[in-house]
């Protein structure tokens, strides 16, 4: 607590798709073990190091256990503000890593082996609550940032834009967002699927289910230890802890000419790329030693405002960089790897 803590950055390399294999794309990314990955292609030969690297054969469970996600859940229960966000090129497996298959619904749930970090974290949270014997109050809010508008994915009716405010005590926050209490795994998974189905997605040349918005699912955790033998007539004097666990599924960076986007899709892509550029700029400045930092421009986008505490404040953050191993995606892959390498130098003070 209060000590400088580096952002934990892990890398996930998805398998080559059937389309990429048929097309004859070469695999240019290779895991070297011990958190190192090597990129080898014409005019490019580079090695990058991360806290962990998950190659194409890694299971969803291996990513959950090896990324440090379980520890993040425990820290959130201890009252810390914890964030995990997935980023990378469109079609690189961000939403799959966080949520599992896109086709699941309440009537057709995904196979347990394919569940993502979010569902596994819910299970871990409820298990920890039972084993600690703490009195836990859980609630969730779910937002998307679409074309620089913040929209509530849980409130009934069509999504409408909500104002983003700032206060000295809370920092940046969304006014009038709906927060829904839940007690069971079924209830929170139902909320997750309900919100995800309302999120903006479109099909283009690189991805049939491209996320057109950044999504932020926040779990608010209020816990109070229950005294096993309270003194007669004494009220519960156990202090409560309030922590948060925020999952951020960033829309994928993309080149408009590669996706064949036009019209509204092109406008969406430009908005996505502008906010990701603002995020990258903030990360570059935060990666400098504290004495050499200049002003961090969080106000440049709605995304950076909402992630300000996670990146440069008092939170604990896990970043999952997702990449394609295909030679066709080389420039975007190198961009994601450089972005992730800079993020490893960012420190916060939880």
TrEMBL record:
Q: Where does it mainly reside? A: cytoplasm
- Gene Ontology MF term list: ATP binding; microtubule binding; microtubule motor activity
Q: Which InterPro entries match?
A: Kinesin-like_fam, Kinesin_motor_CS, Kinesin_motor_dom, Kinesin_motor_dom_sf, P-loop_NTPase
**UniProt KW keywords:** ATP-binding, Cytoplasm, Cytoskeleton, Microtubule, Motor protein, Nucleotide-binding
- Spans traversing the lipid bilayer: none
Give me the residues that bind ATP, please: 88-95
For the keyword Nucleotide-binding, the answer is yes
* Cellular compartment(s): Cytoplasm, Cytoskeleton
**Record Pfam families:** Kinesin
List the CDD domains hit by this protein, alphabetically: KISc
GO biological process annotations for this chain's record?
Answer: microtubule-based movement; mitotic spindle organization; spindle elongation
Give any Gene Ontology cellular component: microtubule
- The segment(s) forming the Kinesin motor domain are 6-346
Q: Which PROSITE patterns match?
A: KINESIN_MOTOR_1, KINESIN_MOTOR_2
- Point out the coiled-coil segments of this chain: none
Question: Of which family is this protein a member?
Answer: Belongs to the TRAFAC class myosin-kinesin ATPase superfamily. Kinesin family.
Identification of the protein by name: Kinesin-like protein
């Amino acid at each position: 607590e209060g000590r400088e803590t580096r952002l934990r950055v892990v890398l996930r390399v998805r398998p080559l798709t059937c389309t990429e294999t048929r097309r004859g794309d070469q695999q240019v990314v290779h895991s070297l073990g011990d958190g190192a990955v090597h990129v080898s292609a014409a005019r490019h030969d580079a090695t990058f190091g991360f806290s962990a690297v998950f190659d194409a054969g890694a299971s969803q469970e291996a990513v959950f256990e090896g990324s440090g996600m379980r520890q993040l859940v425990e820290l959130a229960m201890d009252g810390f503000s914890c964030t995990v966000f997935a980023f990378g090129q469109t079609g690189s497996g961000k939403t799959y890593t966080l949520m599992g298959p896109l086709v699941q619904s309440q009537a057709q749930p995904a196979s347990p082996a394919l569940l993502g970090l979010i569902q596994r974290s819910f299970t871990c949270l409820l298990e920890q609550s039972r084993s600690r014997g703490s009195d836990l109050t859980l609630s969730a809010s779910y937002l998307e940032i679409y074309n620089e508008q913040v929209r509530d994915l849980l409130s009934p009716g069509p999504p409408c834009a909500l104002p983003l405010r700032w206060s000295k005590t809370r920092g940046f926050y969304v006014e009038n967002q709906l927060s829904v209490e839940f007690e069971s795994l079924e209830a929170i998974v139902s909320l997750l699927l309900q919100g995800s189905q309302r999120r903006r997605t479109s099909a283009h040349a690189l991805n049939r289910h491209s996320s057109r918005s950044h999504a932020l699912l926040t779990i608010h955790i209020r816990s109070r230890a229950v005294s096993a033998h309270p003194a007669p007539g004494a009220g519960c004097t156990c202090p409560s802890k309030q922590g948060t666990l925020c999952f951020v599924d960033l829309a994928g960076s993309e080149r408009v000419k590669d996706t064949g986007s036009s019209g509204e899709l092109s406008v969406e892509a430009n908005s996505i790329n502008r906010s990701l550029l603002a995020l990258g700029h903030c990360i570059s400045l935060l990666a400098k030693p504290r004495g050499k930092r200049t002003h961090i421009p969080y106000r440049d986008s709605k995304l950076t405002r909402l992630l300000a505490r996670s990146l440069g404040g008092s939170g604990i953050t896990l970043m999952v960089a997702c990449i394609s191993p295909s030679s066709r995606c080389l420039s975007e892959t190198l961009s994601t790897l450089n972005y992730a390498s800079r993020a490893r130098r960012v420190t916060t003070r939880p």
